[in-house]
Amino acid sequence: xxxxELSASETTALRGAEGLAxxxxxxxxxxxxxxxTAAAAFAAQARQMSRPYLIAHSDVHLLTRMLHxxxxxxxxxxxxxxxxxxxxxxWLLRRKKAAAQRLYGPDMMEQMWGDGRAAGLRHFLxxxxxxxxxxxxxxxxxxxxxxxxxxxxxxxxxxxxxxxDERMLAALRESGADCVWVGLGCPRQERWLYExxxxxxxxxxxxxxxxxxxxxxxxxxxxxxxxxxxxxxxFRLCCEPRRLLRRYLVHNSRFIWYLLTRRV
Length: 264
Description:
GO terms for molecular function: hexosyltransferase activity. It holds the Pfam family Glyco_tran_WecG. The chain has 13 helices and 8 strands. By secondary structure, it is an alpha/beta fold.
């Protein structure tokens, strides 16, 4: 992923290996597509992978970390695709005349599990609790009969014991998965992926954060109308104030500052 500033003409023409167009927001090239088209492109890419292909789902929190934390921003350059996960980013893309739609991590997960059955895609779940993963597999398998689950691995709460990284990598290599869904939470999941990219087996790797708990029914998801209005963060803050207050206070404030002081 390139984070240098790109001109409008360059970003309009910029396309990734999967054929999806990109458009720059604060120098970060976001995928411009609708969900079915993006999922179909990723599914086609999965069947011809010869290397790991990293996909981030970026909301305001992830965007401001990329801009504010130098090491994190540098690491994120190793990602192959960054999808607009939050409505504020979608609105900025639309201001640039890009036909952008929200590519929400939990929705991408459902779309890929459904569409990937015809292609025989195999899915691996990395992260979450044993309870969440068990319920997630049960629910998604019932909803998408025939879906292939290649395996799962639930690391303990950090700090991880010695050798945990290698155990995670070994589980991935043994699974033969085409799509790996990483629910270690932001920013840990993105950092783990870019730090281990050279050791990862060929597959698509999606950082999807809280999607495991949403689909498992362990955490209530914001109503769809709130998500369309860009107010999902407020709903989640009301549900988990102690965990999320500082995150939203810091990163939403930084986002506003960047809007006022930087070229979008």
